[in-house]
Design brief:
This protein is mainly β. The chain folds into three domains: 134 residues, Jelly Rolls; 83 residues, Immunoglobulins (Immunoglobulin-like, Sandwich), CATH 2.60.40; 439 residues, Methylamine Dehydrogenase, Chain H (7 Propeller), CATH 2.130.10. It is built from two helices and 56 strands. The strands form 15 sheets. Strands 4-7-12-9-10 form a five-stranded antiparallel sheet, with no helix packed on it. Strands 17, 18, 20, 21 and 22 form a five-stranded antiparallel sheet that branches. A four-stranded antiparallel sheet has the order 3-13-8-11, with no helix packed on it. A hairpin with a 4-residue loop joins strand 47 and strand 48. The chain is globular and about 80 Å long. Keywords: Signal. One of its GO terms (molecular function) is carbohydrate binding. This is CBM6 domain-containing protein.
Length: 742
Amino acid sequence: MKRLTKTSAVVTAATVLAAMVTTGVFAPAVHAATARYEAESAPATCDGAIATNHSGFSGTGFCDSTGTVGAAARFTVAATAAGSATLDIRYANGNAVGRPANVTVNGTVVHSATPFDSTGGWSAWATRTITVPLNAGSNTIALSATTAGGLANIDYLDVTTNGAAVGRRMESLGRGVVAVRSSSSAVLVSWRLLGLDPAGIGFNVYRSTAGGAAVKLNSSVLTGGTNFTDSTANLSQANSYHVRPVIGGAEQASSGAFTLTANHATEPVVRVPLRAGGVVKFLWVGDLDGDGEYDYVLDRQTSPQKIEAYRRDGRFLWQVDMGPNSTNQNNIEGGSSTINVGHNDGVTVQDLDSDGRAEVAVRIANGVTFGNGVRFTDSNNNRQHIAILDGMTGAPRATAPVPTDYLADGPMYARFGVGYLDGVNPSLVAFMKNRIGSGDFNLMFAAWRFTGNALTMQWKFLRGNQNLPDGHNTRIIDVDGDGKDEIVEIGFVLNGDGRLRYSLGPQGIVHGDRFHIADIDPSRPGLEGYGVQQNNPSGLRDYYYDAATGNIIWRHSASGTADVGRGMVGDIDPRHPGMEVWAFSGLYNASTNRLTQSSTSLQPWPQLGLYWDGDTTMELLNDGKFEKWNPTSPTTTNSVPRLLTTGNYGAVDAAQGNSPVIYGDIFGDWREEVLYTNAAFNELIIFTTNQPSNTRLYTLAHNPAYRNAMTFKGYMQSHHVDYFLGAGMATPPRPNITYQPR
């Protein structure tokens, strides 16, 4: 029996889950037109019986089909207009094997052998999400068993129409105003342009000195880059800055304010206090308190491990103790609640139920103590669960079991990320592995959706013995432009419904350490990928491919095998169209496969990209150094012109070796922040640009591909937007998103 225990209370996890399930699991919040069709209610029909012998169902029962091929559950649904619709099919399958079904609409099979995998028990409900075409008026949707086991138990069908035009439910961010001293007499003030801001929006900048009245600093409305240099401030006193948007000549409501303290150091840094504690390896951002600005969740690499949450000003919120099963921190076969070792994490942060406040997702096991003091216990130390924690308290809002397909081989390490698999709602996606004896690895992907009161598995995918190479990173991005995200590994891609889209294995791709997906070639439709290889027996070093189809466009090989441990993508040479790609065999223009810098001693190191100085070409983040490679006068790799050295400001990166705890567009304009801790691990050191820019781009955090990337860790690699960001770029298209109320 697994249970949540506190000294004065005992609550079983099963009870918590059952209570959450019966309150209406997985009814997507209405974003267009959503209707629920219960399997037990006319006009639905069931080839079998309407049963009630398993708990957790919605309504008054569920369809328990006969055990025959062709046994069906049928629903008559209405659509006001012809078009695509999203089906959320709630089901349970207590068998160890799946019960696939054909999905037909008006007599036509639109999805064949749709998997309805084991949910781990007949009272453990999951949701399969698919898209189908509907006619205007009445439609008959049937789920028909394709095996002799019959259907999984079917609870209900949620039908959502006209959802495509609404877009993704993303964070309603504030302006993220920040100010740093850029010289002894000047302050750079920077703020966000939001994804849905009108094209003609302008801004006024205000300063309040020592608590006095606010004074407008700009003489005319600012319509260029969203930053401003204040050269008139009395820097011996505290100065508070805010901005007011101007639309159609009228000032709008004020943003939140940022205060630069009196006699502040001249540095491109914001410092945030932390409690004393152990080494920090990773940090995640999310709006925990609903004020529109990012707060911080971080790990402590102690034994046992900890997770801590802080408001953006450093106010401590809560701590989770990962318990005795986090003390084994082996990077391949560690404990069942161990987080953030090797290429694994098992934690992420995002607003998963679209209520305006972020949650924390974490893989847990026996002995984890949540932020409210409640302890999770399970009689099997290897059995694992997913917990969704309240961002403000660290208390569990929902839990769900990790599928046990590979439990016999021990607990599974995980990489977590968030994507929009249906194009509208965020889903938690987990990459999970464990070792088979001392040899190969099991690999499972699974997706869950959290609806505010329940966490429901959408699907799982087992690699088995398929030729599907994986690596140390995962990306979630819309590779085919249909508005819905795919899950991308270095050697294969899953569609958002958990089905295999393609594998690069048959084209000779094996394991590798780094890969990228971006609009590398803006003259070519869609997105492209670039990856590197580790000890490929064919001699393959790196390759460039179509991200939607997996078709390899070009490849570089050499005699013998090599461990190509790094590879990078970005526009660092404006003389050539599109982006450059490079590993350790020279710098190439991707679109032409032209070797533009053949000397490996003069190419930059392929670590991380960074947007910092204000132009649209990429800077480089390499082992605590911000660098700007000069293509017309290149210098040796270890002497690339340096913009900043993080160690000069007290930053350390001991836990990661050569990477920050996170980097991304956290506040200010579209350029990126880089976060480290100090040597005592009691302060965040946040690098934010001190250089003005006329470039006007909406915050990268409102770009779907970029925001997804910020939820992943693994071996840290560069984030990318889904449009071309580089020299000569066009104005990016408006993102297809909606803000959630806060």
